[in-house]
Design goal:
By secondary structure, the protein is mainly beta. The protein contains one helix and 20 strands. The chain has one helix spanning about 1-15, and strands spanning about 40-45, 50, 60-65, 75-80, 90-100, 105-115, 120-130, 135-145, 155-160, 165-170, 180-190, 190-200, 210-220, 220-230, 235-245, 255, 270-280, 290-295, 305-315, 320. The protein has a four-stranded antiparallel β-sheet, with no helix packed on it. It has a four-stranded antiparallel β-sheet with strand order 5-6-7-8, with no helix packed on it. It has a four-stranded antiparallel β-sheet with strand order 9-10-11-12, with no helix packed on it.
């Protein structure tokens, strides 16, 4: 009996002395997330972050459970095409989960490609076989951004309005800014319906280029954030149009110009030409984040664009406050919910 009591006492002492464990705190990350990462798109999908960017020859995805692990993740080719007219100069891929005409949810890959000398770039769509963002994918269609297929089209993105209608926004020609922003209604994920509509956007001193549209829906407003100036310059930066979510997106007067540039170079941090962005939510849905590319020098070149991310907040009037781009190597707290 005494032996039994002693054994129980030792067991209790062992349990009381056992160290308590606390959940591991996710590691901060540093930018860039991808060294050669122009035109990035990033989302948190089914427990992991997925990042893609312009490769020129195909569409690649890398993924990781933590943002801090993306920089070392391997790229996987999920789409490549040898068909003439759409196999070269593949730019600005984006993935959107949409429903097809049968009401089935699929991933749709929107990308820009060409087969000849400029201005031959057009928009194309591939469709996933199932629910996996990594595919496999099959070619679906060219998005006819003008009925006669005459005009340059790049940087397409998709958004669903409050009325449930889906719209496509892209950069095209001709435009009073050389290449500008256009919008059209979608009848399904690979077909545009009706006329394309040009949207005016201020360059704040940049005469040419309005491209890389990205959409934010918040507080009853729709924010269309766009890039301006040349993407190879240190002055590439972001402007913004704003519409009421109940307004008709196809009516140019619905979109009001925000009065100032919303994201630009930060010379003191060594960040130049921040632009061509998208937005994503933290894993718990509580934080809003921007992914964008930026340059490491003020030289005019496309070669030094890398993919980066940081959290942003909202102003008292409900507008996004993107702040300033943070320096490479600066520790950034991970998104909430990791």
């Amino acid at each position: 009996m005494l032996l039994k009591i002693a054994i129980l006492a030792l067991a209790a002492l062992s349990l009381s002395a056992a160290p308590t464990t606390t959940p591991a705190t996710p590691s901060p990350f540093v930018n860039p997330l991808k060294r050669h990462g122009a035109d990035p798109w990033l989302a948190y999908v089914d427990g992991e972050y997925y990042l893609t960017s312009t490769s020129g020859v195909d569409v690649k995805l890398r993924h990781a459970k933590h943002l801090s692990k993306l920089a070392d993740a391997e790229d996987e080719v999920v789409w490549k095409d040898s068909t003439g007219g759409r196999s070269r100069n593949i730019w600005a891929p984006e993935f959107h989960r949409l429903k097809n005409e049968a009401g089935e949810s699929r991933w749709y890959l929107f990308y820009t490609a060409s087969g000849e000398a400029e201005p031959s770039h057009r928009m194309f769509v591939a469709e996933s076989a199932g629910q996996d963002i990594r595919g496999p994918y099959s070619f679906k269609a060219q998005l006819k951004t003008d009925p006669e297929d005459r005009y340059y089209a790049i940087d397409g993105t998709v958004f669903e309005a409050a009325n449930g209608q889906t719209y496509f926004v892209w950069c095209g020609r001709p435009s009073e800014t050389g290449q500008g922003l256009f919008i059209s209604k979608m009848s399904n994920p690979w077909t545009l319906a009706g006329d394309r509509v040009a949207l005016k956007a201020d360059g704040f001193g940049c005469r040419d280029v309005r491209e890389g549209p990205a959409i934010l829906d918040h507080g009853g407003k729709v924010f269309l954030v766009y890039s301006m100036c040349g993407a190879d310059t240190p002055d590439y930066r972001l402007g913004m149009l704003v519409a009421d979510e109940r307004a008709d997106p196809l009516d140019p007067s619905s979109w009001k110009q925000h009065e100032k540039v919303v994201f630009s170079r930060n010379d003191s941090a060594g960040v130049y030409g921040p632009g061509h962005n998208q937005f994503f939510k933290s894993p718990d849905g509580r934080e809003d984040w921007i992914v964008y590319h930026a340059k490491t020098s003020a030289h005019v070149t496309y070669s030094d664009r890398s993919a980066r991310a940081q959290k942003f907040t909202w102003t008292a009037d409900g507008s996004p406050d993107l702040g300033q781009p943070v320096a490479e190597g600066q520790p950034v707290a991970p998104p909430s919910g990791e």
